[in-house]
Amino acid sequence: MEAFQNDGLQNMIREASTVLRARGFRYCDDGVDQEPEPLPTELSATPLIAAGLAASSTDLPTQSIARTLDNDPTTFWSSRGTASPEAGAWLLYKLKGPLCIVHFVQLVVFRARYQFGEPIYPPLHVSFQTGPSPASLAPATAVYPVLASSQVQGFLLPASLPAGRFLRVNLHGRQQQQLEDMQWYVAVERVEAFGRQVPPSELASLRSWAQGSTPCLPSPGSLPAHLASCALQAHAQVAVEKQQQPDADPPEASSAHRCGGPLDDRLGQDRHRGLLDLLIEHDDGVGGEDYQDDWSSSSS
Predict the structure, then answer these.
(1) Which residues, 6+ apart, have CB-to-CB distance to 52 below 8 Å?
(2) Lower CB density within 10 Å: C or N end of the chain?
(3) How many C-beta neighbours within 10 Å does residue 264 have?
(4) Residues 149, 160 contacting (CB under 8 angstroms)
């Protein structure tokens, strides 16, 4: 998204939208922010994001994911432009280690006050994923609608979302074209995640499970629900990797899928101990710099 700010032309920039609309250019709003629904005031307000790691695309080096965390209302992350408004995008964040439970996410869409008509660049919808690593994210939540508003929008996440160390924000669709190139963009000024960090007593339960000589599905009640879902996510990833091995046996309704079924192969043990290393030993070297995903080109 190109910038051409000139404070002396601010009124002309605002008034230009009337002329542009008359000539057929579409703005996704009328320049007045829609009012988002407030979140419950009793929600936990502990910030959880430690760093921005990766984005599906970045339009300019000065518009990186780091800009969504700098608390500067003049900076923003922008996707690259696309010819289709159905294109998706995503932003990947690292949470404060070793494990966090995300209660809600706040997002501010960027309004380009330096462009004619002051367009705003929201996605159509947003969804969220968490997990112990960028490659082991839980399935996405249901999609939430995003307003054409530069006010803070809050999204209350389901209690079933597992604890994790990574958060991915999926941006579905695009609502605004840029006049200069008639491409569709999405731009985000700020992202914040709130909730709580998992206390040491609960981490000890997860460590006990992950350190087993033959790691298995957690039995009912052996782990808190948010940790059990995190363990199940790791277990599911093991099953996928096992089936991708050339000599993998056909799936059976047996030990790999029953509660308490042993993962007695080397892959299963390594996978669970890798989860243990990530969550318990505070391996701050784990990042998402090389994280790749084709979601943005195949989903809307």
Answers:
(1) 64, 65, 66, 68, 69, 91, 92, 93, 94, 191
(2) C
(3) 12
(4) no
d(CA 296, CA 88): 4
CA distance 79 to 171: 10
The answer to whether the CB of 272 falls within 8 A of the CB of 144 is no
* Residue partners of 195: CB distance under 8 A and separation at least 6: 44, 46, 48, 100, 101, 102, 103, 104
Q: How far, in Å, CA of 104 to CA of 189, rounded?
A: 17
Q: Cβ-count burial of 120 within 10 angstroms (0-12 exposed, 13-18 middle, 19+ buried)?
A: buried
Q: Locate tokens 């991708």: which residue?
A: 244
pTM: 0.73
How far CA 107 is from CA of 91, 131, 163, in Å, comes to: 12, 20, 20
